[in-house]
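User: For my dataset I need records formatted as: sequence, then structure tokens, nothing else. Please produce one.
Assistant:
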Amino acid sequence: MKKYVIAAIIFAAVLSACGKSEKTVPARSGDFLIPESAALIGYVDMSGLMQHNQIRTIKVTAEEQLGIKLDQADEIFFWVSYDGLEGSEPAWCIASKAKAITDISAAFEEDGEIDGFATYTLKNEEGFRAVIISGYAVVGTDAGVAMSIHASKGGNLPQSPRNQLFSQMISKIRGALTIAFVPTPEIKAKMSGKNMDDEFAPLLENCAGISIAADYKDEKLLIAVVVDSSKEAAETAAAEILKLKEDAKPYIDQFGAILGEQPLSLLKICHASFTAKAFDGTLRLSLEIPGKLLEIMENFVSNMR
């Protein structure tokens, strides 16, 4: 759990290196830092996410623990690479346009260099590294930072045929948080679906990509998911998911009875908003979660600890 907390703080620390600018950085201008082996990439519009209490809490926590003041950030991006080998761990990085590494010097200290780039490590915590590349602050795992450095010199996503696949997935949906997954050949080989229910196995076996978008508007968390697969697999999955939606009704009543009348009403609104549709080989899911329900659930979980 500590790793995830540190990662969230590092995320905020990178944001602190972003100064307000008169011109927004283009959403994909930093893609030269993404290795062509990346299986997942994401883009974040902090101005949209800052409307949510939990994100604002992370900001305050980071300011307190790092002794820095976070500014409004331009859109940032991240990527994850995974070779699919047994026992291996994903390499990942978070990057954003930066002023200078000195802006986060309270959390980092210089530790060496990779291919001529000075690198920095998070004080008192192993496994995280930072570097400045062409004006971008890049923070991630040791392997991830090294991969971004090498990508900046060639062999990056924009130079790969996979870039078009990512562009197609990203164009399907967009939010304050947008994530696109395109399986590498290694990951594709593992997506046989043998560990999945028969109804969903074809969806994975034929999966060309997945897009996820999240936004917070009008006091609601909006979530959308798009899966590109075969026509038959998408239609089968949509039908099965709608069956699961129907089967969930009694459990919502039971859970709502524990939480109270207002949460039950909000849960029913959330449940009713969920949709699953299929068309032309694409499965599209959408869900609206009332902000008040998120607060209630957060308090419920906190009281259980």
